[in-house]
Amino acid sequence: MTSATSATAHLNSVSAKIDAGQGTIGALVNDKQLYSNLQQSTATLQTTMVQAQSGVTDFQENMEALKHNFILSGYFKKARI
Fold first, then answer.
1. Residue 81: which pLDDT band, with cuts at 50, 70 and 90?
2. CB of 58 closer than 8 Å to CB of 49
3. CA 24 to CA 63: how far, in whole Å?
4. Are 77 and 68 in contact (CB under 8 A)?
5. Residues 43-59: tens digit of each pLDDT
6. Distance in angstroms (rounded) separating the CA atoms of residues 15 and 45
7. Burial 31-45 (b: 16+ CB within 10 A, else e)
8. DSSP the chain
9. What is the rounded CA–CA span in Å between residue 17 and residue 13?
10. Tens digits of per-residue pLDDT, 14-47?
11. CA atoms 61, 62, 63, 65: torsion sign
12. How far is CA 4 from CA 1, 7, 14, 35, in A?
């Protein structure tokens, strides 16, 4: 029973410090600007990933078109790409 009371008291102490903005977790939980920056960064990263995926698809399509190009088709046949 004593260790349960001690653990509860410790958790209350940690929770109070987080609520007060102390420590790394407290700063992350309580800093609205940090939250906003993280949200913007996540949105930017999602947009970048969509653009990168589109770029890879376009590149693959271009490579396939080059394989069928009259001038370059011989090179691709020799290279077996």
1. low
2. no
3. 48
4. no
5. 999 999 999 999 999 99
6. 32
7. eeeeeeeeeeeeeee
8. -HHHHHHHHHHHHHHHHHHTT-HHHHHHHH-HHHHHHHHHHHHHHHHHHHHHHHHHHHHHHHHHHHHT-TTTHHHHHHHT-
9. 6
10. 899 888 888 888 888 888 888 889 899 999 999 9
11. positive
12. 5, 5, 15, 34
- Nearby residues of 73 by Cβ (< 8 Å), 6 or more positions away: 67
Structure tokens at 3: 């260790």
Place of tokens 């011989």: 74
